[in-house]
Amino acid sequence: MKTVGQILKETRESKLLTLEEVEKHTKIRKELLEALEASDFSKLPPSTFIQGFIKNYSKFLNLNADKLLAVYRRDFEAKKHPPIILDSFANPLNSPKFRLTPSRVLGTIVALVILGFFVYLWVEYRQFIGAPNLEVDSPKDQQSIDIPSVVVEGKTEPEVKVMVNNQEVGVDQSGHFRAEIKLSSSVNTVIITATGKFGQSAKIERTVILKK
Predict the structure, then answer these.
(1) Which of 35, 70, 141, 156 is 20 to 30 Å from 131 by CA-CA measure?
(2) Sheet harboring 134-138: ordered strands across?
(3) Which of 58, 80, 102 is the last residue of a domain?
(4) Residue 176 belongs to domain with CATH number
């Protein structure tokens, strides 16, 4: 619903009148006219004077003063006595952010199963394309010994083929391997190779120095 100020302003503008022209004919100051059109009663004098302004302004614009005064009383009372909003509507109870329901439980289970399936596929894919893990605990690189043999020991993955200087070494169920090889010169290169079932391989080289 339009306020009395909106009705006055729209009518004035439809007649192509300025506030200065209205001020000249009604003898109402421009700033009071602006406040009246904005329904800003705080910038206007007491209600009796406002009703007088509305009568003069309405007469100048050829509007029904009684109807505008009725609209003004409605607007004025609404501003004096704003509608009461119950706290229960202004501040509704916070609804729980999360509630466990059977559908959510089922959805979570399905999501976990799908996630586990993709993790399994990823692990299998990595095993397919990636080289097996290979760790060599002995000998250390550049290790010096005074006997003509050295123990080669380390760990890899089960079902992996391990070669030490082209000699196959057994691997137990935990991936552990151990072998003793002969040294033939003062500086020996020990090459340990682990080859997976799909042909991918990992290699570690160690230099062992035989003291004489």
Answers:
(1) 141
(2) 134-138, 149-156, 176-182
(3) 80
(4) 2.60.40.10
Give the whole-number percent of the chain exceeding pLDDT 70: 88
Tokens for 171, please give them.
């691997």
Tokens 């009796």 sit at which residue?
A: 48
Give the number of residues written for the chain: 212
Find out whether 36 and 12 touch, Cβ atoms under 8 Å: no
Query: Is residue 100 assigned to a domain?
Result: no
Structural tokens at position 15: 């007649």
Cα atoms in the 13 Å half-sphere on the side-chain side of 149: 5
Q: What domain range includes position 173?
A: 134-210
DSSP H helices, the chain, are 4-14, 19-26, 30-37, 47-61, 65-80, 87-90, 102-129
Q: Is 178 a domain residue?
A: yes
* Interhelix angle 19-26/30-37, nearest 10 degrees: 110
| Sequence-separated contacts (24+) of 134-138 with Cβ below 8 Å | 134/192, 134/194, 134/202, 134/203, 134/204, 136/192, 136/204, 136/206
Q: What are the residues facing 195 on neighbouring strands?
A: 161, 201
Residue range 7-16, pLDDT digits in tens: 999 999 998 9
Of 180, 189, 187, 179, nearest to 211 (Cα)?
A: 187
pLDDT band for position 80 (cuts 50, 70, 90): low
